[in-house]
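Hey,
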Amino acid sequence: MADPTYLHESPNAGEKGLIAARSIGMISYRNFHTYQISQSDIVPVLQDHRAATYQRYQGLKLSNRFTPLAYLSLSRTMDSHHLARGRESISSALASIQAKSLIIGIDTDILFPAAELETIARSIPNAHFELIHSDYGHDGFYLNTMFYTH
């Protein structure tokens, strides 16, 4: 929304903002240590650092899959979702789930901490919690699969 073209009637409206937001977000999707190893420059440079070009690439990749307004709508929906809305509490909402549930966490994920997911699993009857080890943070489910299958 900080992109000045955000609400313009143009096919590219808000695109630079979407790219910038994704680039910034990439920092929280990865583990500091592995990101530092994979994105550090081998030879010191003054601009176009390896991490910056990688983050721009990820932003461009996202802008090829989503329009800024579609992504904003998806983001707002996730941010405003509240399991207890219209219910007694989050605990009672989770306790009402009757389906067998598998809750999976990644030990280095800072967006969805394992302790929070364990609490969710304990609150759902017939739920099972599994913790995956990954050096890659939030994207570990994707990156580990990618590394092990290729």
